[in-house]
Amino acid sequence: MAAVIALLCCAGGGRLARAAEAAPSPAAEPGWLGDDLPLPLAVKTPQDIGFKSAAERQYLIFNLMAGGKLAFDRGDYTGAAGKWETLLRMPGLDPQVAQAVQPLLEDARARAGRPAASADQQAGAPEKAPAPREQVSPTPRRTTVSGTVAGGGPAGPGGAVIWLKRLDEHGPRPTPAQNQIITQREKTFLPHVLAIPVGTSVQFRNDDRIYHNVFSIAKPNDFDAGIRATGATYVKTFSHPGVVQLLCNIHATMNAYVVAVDSPYYAKAQASGAFTIHNVPPGRYDLAAWHESASSVTHKTITVGPEGHRDLAVTVGGDKRPAPFVPDKYGHKRQPQLGY
């Protein structure tokens, strides 16, 4: 099963892994099913890599889903269960797909004389050997942390980024977010603030009818997308935690922020300051809050109980002084005679 999941992380190599215990089909599969990977899609740009990876993921989902149903219909219940169990282990699976497959999977297991799955297995978690009874501990309940940010000076609290770091034990590593896009439209970055877990790739897309040159000098996440025309895209992976100010080397009035956090528990405050962080296990955390108008990050120690933590009050500063000049992509003061 690990081979199937690993296939989702990169495009290329091998054939679709067959579900465990799947019996060989006595008849040829229909022509609309196939198991050859990688797909014969040309890769010439970084954008092609992302496109191909997404296409192969959907191709895999379709084949496991439909292949399991064909096996079920011909009476191969063990094979059907194996394919669908593999499908449900895929990370980030659409809940609608899981909801459609789960009843048929339970039926296939029953017809094959196999025991029903645990709650974790039904949710798509990898199967694990049961621990001795005295060592079994209940799965920590996932809770919600919510509250309101105040401050931020004249800009207000909207756009503050809040994240949690576990203090009483090592927390899980964050999983990179998918489909993160910042557009340039009417000489503006949209969104103005993007919060992401570290390791996430962000696509920068020019939706204006003019040229843009997105860049950042915030090391170690610095980059230069170069001059890009209408419809052009550029992908940057933010491999290090930190605040990354985005600028345009052609238009000095443009700015935005990517905030890469080393935590799976984070949120961006609404314009009112309200925020909610989901799926937080109980424990002690350092709550950190960043705002573009604050000269420093706010920190606060909180304890999340079994029922979560609500009505948190977080205050961010509004004391950050403006920079003496807007730098170009070399860090130099811009020359007014250049017209930007």
Descriptive report:
The protein is α+β, with helices and mostly antiparallel strands and 340 residues long. It folds into two domains: 2-122, no CATH class; 143-338, Immunoglobulin-like, CATH 2.60.40. Helix content is 20%, strand content 26%. It is built from five helices and 16 strands. The protein has helices at residues 2-7, 46-73, 77-88, 95-111, 119-122; strands at 143-151, 161-166, 180-184, 189-190, 193-197, 201-206, 214-216, 223-224, 233-237, 242-248, 255-261, 266-268, 274-280, 283-290, 298-304, 309-316. Helix 2 packs antiparallel against helix 3 and helix 3 (77-88) packs antiparallel against helix 4 (95-111).
Q: Assign a percent range to the helix content.
A: 10-25%
Poorly predicted residue ranges: 1-26, 118-130
Which structural class fits the helix and strand makeup? Answer: alpha+beta
The CATH first-level class of the largest domain comes to Mainly Beta
CATH-derived architecture of the largest domain: Sandwich
Distance between the termini: 55 Å
Broad shape:
flat
Q: What name does the CATH topology of the largest domain carry? A: Immunoglobulin-like
| Tally of helical runs | 5
Order of helices and strands: HHHHHEEEEEEEEEEEEEEEE
C-alpha-based Rg, rounded: 24 Å
Largest sheet data:
5 strands, mixed
Q: What's the overall average pLDDT, rounded? A: 83
Spatial strand arrangement across the major sheet: 5-11-10-7-8
Tell me the fraction of residues in β-strands, as a range. 25-35%
